[in-house]
Every structure is written in C-alpha cells, then in structure tokens.
Design brief:
With about 230 residues, this protein is mainly beta. The protein has two domains: about 130 residues, no CATH class; about 70 residues, no CATH class. About 10% of the residues lie in helices and about 40% in strands. The protein has two helices and 18 strands. A hairpin with a 5-residue loop joins strand 16 and strand 17. The longest helix has 16 residues. It starts with a helix and ends with a strand. About 30% of the residues are buried.
Length: about 230
C-alpha cells in the first residue's frame, strides 16, 4: 500500500511539474491556481479582475484588473470598464503578477483600457484589445520588455497559436460591413489566419457564432492549440 501511494504521489508531482493540474481560473473577480501543496492560491493584485486567459500548457496567465468602471445599466450584467491594467503571471515566477500600464493612442485619443490579453508562445509578446469602437475593437501588440506598441488589426475576437506548424501566428475574427448596392447585404464576420509576416488566409467567410469551433479545428489540424 505504501509503495502504491509513493508511485501515485510521484506521478502527480511529475504531472504538476510539467504544468498540468495548475487549473488557473477566475471566480468572483479573483484569479487563482493550484499550488504545489495542492491548495488553491490567489494571485493578488488588490482589485477585481476579468478576462482571464490561460496558456495551453497552463504555465502562464494574462488578465486585467479593473481600475475604474461604471455600474451596469439597463439589461447589462457586467460593469462598463473605463480603465484597466494588464497583468501577466508565470509559473516560473511562482505566478507573481507583473503589471503593464496602458497609454495607447488611437483615433486621436489616449486609452487606458485593455481587454482580453494573451501571450505569444515565447512569452515575449503581449496582445490585447483596445475597445475604441462599437463596430470592432483594435488589436494591439507590445513586447513584454519594452513600452512600445503596434496596431495589429480591427477585430471582434482573436487567439494566438501555441505549438504546431504555425506557432505564434494569430487567428482573427473581423467585421466586414456591407458595401452600398451589395445584393447580399448584411454584416459579415469572416475569420482568418495571419502569419507573423502579415500574410492572411481566410478560414471561413462568416463564423461569428462558430469562431471557437473553426479555430479549434484549424489549430488541431496543424498540431497546435489556439484558445
């Protein structure tokens, strides 16, 4: 019995050391993960958090802390976020949260808000949306080690490919408004794959409701994960 316990314990330890079983999650504005002792630990930033992203190997997370918001009105459920700070935390650093202040100039205005942050597989590039338009947010990237940024695209959703043939590439969901006189009419939401070179290949002509499914299938076919 003792031998069996030791075998199971070492197997669990090995799985944990490979980044499995950490199970980062967001609940009631608090980000937690499972520590080495098997108990759930809080990543403390002193404010309510949102938009948790977990890397496919569970060794890194990114999320926002809400610095300023308005209460929900009408039929809204969530508060309207006016300012936020992006945080990144890695298992290698015992999930110590690293803040990234936001001063993004778009459309003649400086924005101090980000949504849906994610990291590249090498953990050197941070991506996030700036919600500067009702018709589509602006996807921005910045190096983790430098306070500079660049505009990537306008979109409605995105993910970063981890592993496989296209590791580090992006999957994008964008909005295409109808052209005057277009017989088909209506807004389309095509999804595409964008290489780091900037080359873009359409995955589906309209996948507003199926973006996650389309991207999951595409990434699996190429040996990676995109979520």
């Amino acid at each position: 019995m003792r031998l069996a316990f030791i075998v199971v314990w070492f197997a669990a330890l090995a799985a944990h050391s490979d980044g499995q079983g950490l199970s980062p999650r967001l609940s009631n504005g608090v980000v937690t993960y499972v520590g080495e002792d098997g108990t759930r630990k809080e990543i403390k930033v002193g404010r309510k958090c949102a938009d948790l992203w977990v890397s496919p190997d569970e060794n890194a997370v990114a999320f926002i802390a809400i610095d300023r918001s308005k209460p929900p009105v009408g039929g809204e459920i969530e508060p309207f976020i006016e300012e936020s700070t992006v945080y990144v935390a890695r298992k290698a650093d015992a999930f110590r949260p690293i803040p990234f202040a936001l001063n993004i100039e778009l459309d003649g205005r400086v924005w101090h808000i980000a949504r849906e942050p994610k990291l590249s597989p090498d953990l050197l590039t941070l991506y996030f949306f700036v919600p500067n338009s009702m018709a589509g947010w602006t996807l921005v990237s910045r190096p983790v080690r430098a306070d500079i940024y660049r505009v990537v695209a306008r979109g409605a959703d995105y993910c970063v490919m981890w592993g496989g043939d296209h590791s580090g590439d992006l999957a994008l969901l964008t909005r295409v408004d109808p052209r005057p006189g277009d017989p088909n009419g209506g807004v389309r939401y095509p999804c595409s794959w964008r290489r780091s070179s900037g080359e873009e290949v359409e995955l589906a002509s309209d996948c507003f409701a199926a973006f996650d499914d389309v991207v999951a299938k595409w990434s699996a076919e190429h040996g990676g994960a995109c979520r």
